[in-house]
Amino acid sequence: MITKMNCRKISFLGMLLFAMLNCSAQSIPEWKMIHPGIWKAVIGKPDAMTLLSVADATPNLEAMSKLPKGSFPLPQGEISMSVVDHKTYLRFPLEKGEQLFGLGLNFKNVNQRGKIFNLHVDHYNGEDNGRTHAPVPFYVSSKGYGVLIDAARYITVYAGTGVRTDTKNPPELLDRNTSKNWKAHPYSDAVEMLVPADGVAVYVFEGPTPMQVVQRYNLMNGGGYLPPKWGLGFTQRVPTLYSQTDILKEVQQFKEHAFPLDFIGVEPGWQSMAYPCTFEWDKTRFPNPKSFIDSLSAQGIRSNLWMNPYVSPVGSLYPKLKPLSASHTVWNGIIPDITLPKTQQIFKDHFIKEHLSLGVSGYKMDETDGFDSWLWPDVTTFPSGYSAEQMRQMYGLKMQRMTAGWFKEMNKRTFGLTRASNAGSSGLPYVIYNDYYDHKDFITALVNSSFIGILWTPEVRASKTAEEWVRRIQSVCFSPMAMLNAWADGTKPWSFPEVEKAVQDVAQLRMQLLPYIYNCFSQYHFEGKPPFRSMQLVEGFRFSTKDQYMMGDQIIVAPMFAGEKTRTVHFPSGKWYDFYTGDFVGENQPLVITASLEKIPLFVRDGGIIPMVPPHFHAPAQGEKLALEIRHYGKMPASIELYDDDGISFDYEKGMHSKTQLVVTKNEKGELKGNMIRRSTDKVFSYKEDVVWKFMTSK
Ligand code: GAL
Questions:
Q1: Nearest atom of ligand 1 to the alpha carbon of 459
Q2: Max intra-chain CA distance, the chain
Q3: Cα 412 to middle of ligand 1, angstroms
Q4: What is the pLDDT of residue 699?
Q5: What's the pLDDT tens digit per position in 407-422?
Q6: Residue nearest to atom 10 of ligand 1 (CA)
Q7: Whose CA is nearest to atom 12 of ligand 1?
Q8: How many of the other CB atoms lie within 10 Å of CB of 126?
Q9: Among candidate residues 71, 88, 114, 73, the one with its CA nearest the CA of residue 23
Q10: Centre of ligand 1 from the C-alpha of residue 366, in Å
Q11: Would you state the pLDDT for residue 11?
Q12: Which residues line ligand 1 (CB under 6 A)?
C-alpha cells in the first residue's frame, strides 16, 4: 500500500535517480602521472573517439624523461570537473598577472587571458573567437604549466572571464556612478570550460618553463615531424589550370631566373573534376602523369597534389565510397567517413596506385575546415555513428594521419599542407595555410602556432606593390614552408622586376641556412622545441610582442611590413648581433631599428653558431656533399650539435644519423677558434670535412 510517507520517499528517490543520471556532483579530479611531467584525469565517460586517439602518436618518453622533474604544477584542490546534463564543466585556477597562450591558431593576439572561445574547426574569418583552422584545446601558462582537453567537440573556453560567487579573489566592488576604475570585465581568477560531452580526459603538463611545457606536449605527440630536406626548400604552386607542359616550362623559367625550387604544387586542375574531386588525372592537361613526374624528378623537383575529400559522382571512387559516406554532400560530392577502416583502405589503394607509386611526394588537403555554409551541417549523420560535430573537429587531423601513414610505410618522408588540424598533430607532416592573407596577422599566427604543436606558413600570393612583395617573400622564407601560392593569379617570384634580386637573395639565404633550419626541425623532433617560436618561449623574456619570433635557439626574425622603414625589436637578455654584419645591436631592451628593403632584420644571440652552405637551387640530394661555412656571432665561446641524416627516409629512427659538435673556444688572448668534432660512429654526414669558420663579430 502506498502511504503518503512512501510517496514522498519514492519521489525523493526518483529525484535522486534523475540527478544521478544527469549529473555527477562537482568533484576534485584524481590526477595520475602518465608520462614524465604529464598528468591525466578522467571525468565521466569520455567519447570513444578523441583528438589524441585520432592523432595516434607514440610518445617520446625518453626525451620527456630528460626534462626537469617537478611536481603537479597547480593547486589540485582548486581544479574542479563535473558532468551535468551531458556536458562536462571544467575549472582551473588563475593567478594575478598570469598570461595564457595557445587555445587555437589565433591571428590577432598572443595572450589569450580575458577572451572567450568556442573552439571550432573553421576557416579563420578575421576574429580570434575559437573558429580557426586548428582550434587546439590546449593552453600554456606564463607560470609554466599547460592544460589540454582531449575532446573532438566544440569546446567553449572562458579564459579568465567568469566570476563565481565563491571566488577566493573577488574583484573590487566599484560604483560606476562615481568610480573611474569601474570595469565592464571585472577580475576573473579561473579558466572555465564547457565540453558538450558526457566526460573528458584532461591532461596537465608541468614546465617549469613555458618552453618545457610545449616540449612535453610535442613529445607526447611523438615529437615534431622531421621534414625531408627538400620540404624545406622553395615551393611554387602553379595556376589551377596549368598542364604538365605549362609546369615543365615554369620549372625551366625558375632555372633561367636562377631561383631555387624544390617542389611544385599542382592545384585542382590536375584532376578530371574538382570541387568535388575525382582524384584522377585529367587526360587533356596531364596525358602522361608518370613521365611528367619522372621529368620533374630528373631535375631534382618533387610534386605536391591539391585535393579536398569530397568525392565526385563521375569518379571511379564514387560507387565504392557511396555506402561509406555521410547523409549530406559538399559541393555535390559525397563525404567519405574516414573513421571506417574500409574507407581508409579504398583511399589508400587508389592514392598509392594513382599517385604515390608514380612518385608524387605529398598532398595539399584543402577545405576540411569551413565555412559552415560550405561544409556539412551539424545535422549530418555518418555511417560510423560519430556526430557531425566530432567529424568536423577531427576530419583534417584524420586526413593527415591517414596520408602520413602511406608515406611512412614506403619509408619516404613527405611534407604537405592542410587547412584543418587539431590537438595531437605535432608529429604529422603538414603545414597549415589559409586564404586570409593579412601579412601582419600571418606573423602573429606564426608566433601562436608554436604553443600548440602545429606549423603555419604565411604563404605569398600576390601584392599591390614591389615593396609588399619583397616583404612578404622575406617572411615566408623565414617560416616552416617557403611557398608562393600562385593558384589564382600566376605570380612568379620575379613578377616585380624591380625587386627580383632582393627576392632571389632571400630565397638563396634560406637555402644557405638549410643546415641551421634542418637543425631547428631536428630539435622539434628529438626535443619537442618548435622551430619557429614565440618570444614568450625564450626564458626570462619580459616584453609582449606579436610581430617578431625566434627561428631556433639562435636567431630573432623581425619581419618588415609594406610602408614601414623602421620597427621596434624587443631583445631578450644577453647580447644580440646583426646577422648580416656581426655588429652588436642590443640587449634586454626594445630598440627601434631601420631596415633596407633588401633585407629582413635578423639578429643572432651572443655565442650563436650558424652552419651555412653556399647558395644552391635544390636542397641537397641524398649523398650530396656541400661545403660548410660556420658563422659565429658575439664574443662568447659556445657549442652546438649539427644534426644530419639522409634527408629523405626514416632510417634516422634506426640510428642512421649524425650529431657533430661545432665548438668555439676562446684562448687567453681572447681569440676565438672553431672546431668540428665528428663522432666516429656517425655514418651519414652530407658536408665536406674542411669547413670554413667565420667569426662575424670583430669589434
Ligand atoms: C583554396 C585554397 C587555395 C587554392 C584554391 C584552389 O581553397 O585555400 O590555396 O588551393 O583553393 O582552388
A1: 9
A2: 104
A3: 26
A4: 66
A5: 999 999 999 999 999 9
A6: 267
A7: 268
A8: 10
A9: 88
A10: 7
A11: 52
A12: 240, 267-268, 306, 366-367, 435, 485, 487
Residues 493-546 have pLDDT tens digits of 999 999 999 999 999 999 999 999 999 999 999 999 999 999 999 999 999 999
Mutation pick for ligand 1 pocket among 435, 437, 481 (CB with most ligand atoms within 8 Å) = 435
Give the pLDDT band (50/70/90) at residue 3.
very low
- The residues with which 532 forms a beta bridge, in sequence order, are 551
Higher-pLDDT residue of 25 and 351 is 351
Atom of ligand 1 nearest to the CA of 485: 9
Tell me what the pLDDT averaged over the chain comes to. Answer: 95
Indicate the helix (H) or strand (E) that contains 520. Answer: helix 514-527
Q: Which residues of 494-532 are buried (b: 16+ CB within 10 A; e: fewer)?
A: bbbeebbebbbbbbbbbbbbbbbbbbbbbbbbbbbbbbb
What pLDDT sits at residue 260? Answer: 98
Q: What is the reported pTM? A: 0.96
- Closest CA to ligand 1's atom 5: 487
Structure-block grid coordinates of residue 221 = 605527440
Distance CA 527, CA 224 (A): 8
C-beta separation of 86 from 181 below 8 A: no
| 303-319 mean pLDDT | 98
Residue 168, C-alpha cell as written in the block: 577566493
- Cα 384 to middle of ligand 1, angstroms: 29
Ligand 1 atom closest to Cα of 366?
7
Give distance in angstroms: CA of 488 to centre of ligand 1. Answer: 8
Ligand 1: centre distance to CA 71 (Å): 46
What is the tens place of the pLDDT at every residue in 243-284?
999 999 999 999 999 999 999 999 999 999 999 999 999 999
* Pairwise CA distance, residues 373 & 614, whole Å: 49
Q: Beta-strand (E) ranges in 397-554? A: 416-418, 430-432, 455-456, 482-485, 532-534, 549-551
In DSSP notation, 465-507 reads: SHHHHHHHHHHHHTSSSEEEE-TTT---TTSSGGGHHHHHHHH
> Can you tell me which residue has the cell 644519423?
657
Q: What residues contact residue 133 under an 8 Å CB cut-off, 6+ apart? A: 105, 121, 122, 123, 124, 369, 396, 419, 420, 421, 432, 434
